[in-house]
Design goal:
mainly alpha, 64% helix, two-stranded parallel sheet, Fumarase C, Chain A, domain 2, single chain, elongated, Ribonucleotide Reductase Protein R1, domain 1, Fumarase C, Chain B, domain 1, 19 helices, 3 domains
């Protein structure tokens, strides 16, 4: 992967050394489970466990052996057996390579979820704090890219906080289905492990704090990976949505928010005035890469019979890249919003620039409350809004002259209705509810 992207904490999970240690942890747990049912002695299990460390079984040792075997797990088993002395005779007893590989992957994914859960909680707090701070910061709501009716920036942030919180819940809910291991041999019958196969598997997974694949083939069911990658892609997509909002609101003609821009930072090698939303754009680009891994993940479910090897090469890219990039995207989103510059004055200016057009619905609603038929109120306000646009007048001036409007609303009532701060509905209650639900 390009060294430009990814945080060290997440990259470390997928380093060669870390991956080797996860594999060794699984081999050690297998030896202990065998000892637990009496298949091997406790002394042998201890010897294997003591050897199952990257300080003893090094990446270089395994790599050199793999040059001979052309098989990564077989190479690991040979080196571990050699380092375990006489007890090496019991290394990998009854296991197949996928038992070790898939269980090690589950350990990695469990750690990924732990880190990502924390990062999402941190991001949620940033959104909640912004929602609370800007609960009365009035701005244009937009649909189809055009002015609609007023909202608050706090409400926008509450929407983002709620969406982030759903992803936290999804990760928690899918974890038991995704973080499962398997130790039942070549085609999932457990024949190579003897009568105690299910007990061995259960003891192993309990020690490793993983769930158990109840009905395996040679591998853990790849529908589990589909769910995991889909959840990760969903998270990345939400981050792109949040970043796109910054990019859109930072446009020169909008100017309502802005990414923090360092004093020495440059936006262009030739246009010295440029202050580009580069982090938000980076988030959007990387999120598209994450989503690109969904298709091959689905294809990896379609294996022949009890399994073939068409999934293996793809998964060596998919799982590390998706985890590292998604974590990076979440961290960058938190960085953008924790340092976001909010231009409250420009937000009000943009509402005023509509010359009252953003308040048409408010006037229609006020007329209906005063007893005018709703459909007639719609036609009347549409007509007034059209006249205002045609004459380039403020809607307020047109409404003050309209005899039909004045039958239902006084001049003072029209002015009050046209105040954006008076047409925010239940925004504060919605924000308060999201803030309350997002605690913890």
């Amino acid at each position: 992967m390009d060294f430009r992207y990814g945080r060290d904490e997440m990259k470390a999970i997928f380093s060669e050394e870390s991956r080797l240690q996860y594999l060794l942890d699984v081999e050690a747990a297998l030896a202990c489970a065998h000892a637990g049912v009496g298949n091997i002695s406790g002394r042998d299990a201890v010897a294997i466990t003591n050897a199952a460390r990257v300080k003893v079984v090094s990446v270089d040792d395994v790599r050199k052996e793999e040059e001979k075997t052309k098989h990564d797990i077989a190479a690991l088993v040979r080196v571990l057996a050699k380092k375990s002395g006489p007890s090496g005779a019991y290394v990998h007893l009854g296991a197949t390579s996928s038992d070790i590989n898939d269980t090690a992957t589950a350990l990695q994914v469990k750690e990924v979820i732990r880190i990502l859960n924390k990062n999402l909680r941190d991001l949620k707090k940033i959104f909640v704090d912004l929602a609370r701070k800007h609960k009365e910061t009035v701005m244009l709501g937009r649909t189809h890219g055009l002015a609609a009716v007023p909202i608050t920036f706090g409400l926008k942030m509450a929407v983002f906080a709620a969406e982030t919180n759903r992803h936290i819940k999804r990760l928690k809910q899918c974890m038991p289905r995704i973080c499962v291991g398997k130790m039942l041999g070549a085609v999932g019958t457990g024949a190579s492990l003897g009568k105690g196969a299910l007990i061995i598997q259960k003891r192993m997974m309990e020690e490793l704090e993983l769930g158990v694949e109840e009905a395996p083939t040679q591998i853990v069911g790849r529908d589990r990976y589909v769910e995991f990658i889909s959840v990760m892609a969903g998270i990345a997509t939400s981050m792109e949505k949040f970043a796109t909002e910054v990019r859109s609101l930072q446009r020169t003609e909008v100017g309502e928010v802005e990414e923090y821009f360092g004093r020495e930072q440059l936006g262009s090698s030739t246009m010295a005035q440029k202050r580009n939303p580069i982090t938000s754009e980076n988030i959007c680009g990387l999120a598209r890469v994450v989503r690109g891994y969904i298709h091959p993940t689905y294809e990896n479910v379609l294996l022949w019979h009890e399994r073939d090897l068409t999934n293996s090469s793809a998964e060596r890219f998919i799982i590390p890249h998706v985890c590292i990039l998604t974590d990076d995207i979440v961290a960058k989103t938190a960085k953008v919003y924790s340092n976001l510059i909010v231009n409250e004055e420009r937000m009000l200016e943009n509402i005023e620039a509509t010359k009252g057009q953003a308040m048409v619905e408010a006037v229609m609603t006020a007329l209906a409350k005063k007893g005018m038929d709703r459909q007639k109120a719609y036609k009347l306000t549409r007509k007034c809004a059209g006249w205002a646009r045609k004459r380039d007048e403020h809607l307020l001036d047109v409404l003050r002259r309209d005899k039909m409007v004045l039958r239902y609303l006084t001049g003072w009532e029209i002015e009050k209705t046209m105040d954006p701060a008076n047409y925010l509905g239940s925004s504060k209650k919605i924000i308060a509810n999201i803030v309350r639900k997002s605690r913890g």
